[in-house]
Amino acid sequence: MSRRVFATVLPSLKASRAARPAFVVSRSFSSTLRARSSGHEAETFESFTERYTTFFQSVEDLFELQRGLNNCFAYDLVPAPSVIEAALRAARRVDDYSTAVRIFEGIKEKVENKSQYEAYLRELKSIKEELGTSLLCRSSARFSRRSCYL
User: Is 135 domain-assigned?
Assistant: First the structure.
C-alpha cells in the first residue's frame, strides 16, 4: 500500500521542483516587489581598486576603517598598493597605530611568498616612513624563518 502512495507522490514532487523559477521574488517592508537572484556581476581588479581607494579616502572613524579592511581582505586577491596606501592614511586620520600595523600583517597573510611581501614593503616604504609606522622583527611560521618587517 505505501509503495503505491510513494509511486504517485514522488513524480509529482519532482515535477513541482522543476517548475520553480530561477529567482525568488519577495516583499520587503515597503509595498514594492524586489527580485533577488544568485548571480552577481563580476568585478574587475581595477574597479575593486578604485572602489576601495575611494572608500578609504572617505573613512571618518575607526569602525568604518576596520569594516572596510575586513571586507577588502575577504576577497581572494591581494589589494593594490594604492588601496593599502589609502587604508594607511585612513588609519593615521583616525589616529589608530595598531590598525596600521595590522594592515601590513594582513598583506603578509594574503601574499603567496616572501618576495611578494618584500615587494609590497618596498612599494609602500615612503608612506610607511611618512606616517611613522615601524614594524618589528619576529619569528614567523609563515615564511619558515625569522623575518624582519622593513
Answer: no
